[in-house]
Amino acid sequence: MPTLAKSLSNTINKKINEIPKSEIRAFSNKISQIPGIIKLTVGEPDLQTPERIKRAAIEDIKNDDSHYAPEAGKKEYLNAVSDYLKDSLDVYYNPADEICATVGVTAALNVALMSVLNPGDKVIVPTPVWGVYFGIIKMAGGIPIEVETSEDNFILTADHLKRVMNNEGKGAKAIVITDPSNPTGRVYDKEELEQMAKVITDYNLFALSDEIYAELTYNDKKHYSLAQIIPERTILLSGLSKSFAMTGWRIGYIAGPAEIMKTVVKVSSFLITSVTDNVQIAAAKALEDGEQDYEEARAIYEKRLHIIQTGLEKNGFTMATPEGAFYIFAKIPEHFGSDDVAFATDLANKAKVGVVPGSYFGEGGEGYVRLSYASSEEHLRTAVDRITDYVQDFLNK
């Protein structure tokens, strides 16, 4: 087994070494060692990829579609993305030069930020947020500016954004918005996005809009996009991992104005050459007639949301009303204190329920925990029972 030459050990990329690993993954892996634990940690659907999507990939493999795809993506997939965005958002992106296939949305974020940022550029990041954003921004040479949103029920208001742009965010290049939100499940309404769009325009920002959970909104909440309001400034990032239960397929896309997409395609081609052929064909099939798939998934998740939300509220947890994605961001009851890492660790060890400490999602997450309800009803009901017993045992001490 080789050992790195000592003369090379201090020459490794220092910028990358200074970026910590995902705390969410590390915590989830750690508590996975607890026998019998129910993990509500990682945001991965327990649903299966629909059969018609699997068949499309299998047929494409049988047809020997096994050569390099075009750098931006296969025509079938790009056309399907274009049609899908036109149908769902009424925004048209030309598949010839305004869309790029990516290896999931994580890769899309890397590509988009590398395309936009120069070294030292600031990026506005409303928090709490998926913690991977911070590392991706730093890898691209940027400086993340955290904007804590708990004071406004986990929605970044236009007034708050304006204050930030006049202070610590002065001169920022871009803003990253996740809508629906991970971890809070909050969804921006049309008026909120319109007000935010005005500030984004006034301060000459790029808007990177991560819409991976766009199809999963509840309680009649409708998804809107900054791309509908300021398409000339918006780089839309999305994919099929969540709505079509395709996390392992690693397929996403970037859509934006042709001028920036030239750079996007160039960066993507240097990083991955091209996205896997049969995955693109399967994703095209998913988007072409997939409304029933994500409507069925949405109904399942909405029922699960009710189970976990009701159970938590009965035990003294409070939360911003979850309206999308498949997460609840719950405030720990006061009698447990505010150390979310200690609480989540104790809950895992004593109640055998795995949740993610809220502080892992940036400023404003302290004292909260995130629970994913992308798990079976049986697991969720058992988790609620275990949490109930844990809370009662604590109160009866």
UniProtKB/TrEMBL annotation:
Protein's GO biological process: amino acid metabolic process
Keyword flag Nucleotide-binding: no
Highest rank taxon of the organism: Bacteria
Annotated keywords: Aminotransferase, Pyridoxal phosphate, Transferase
Any Pfam family hit: Aminotran_1_2
EC number: 2.6.1.-
PANTHER family: AMINOTRANSFERASE (PTHR46383:SF4), ASPARTATE AMINOTRANSFERASE (PTHR46383)
Descriptive protein name: Aminotransferase
Species assigned in the record: Lactobacillus apis
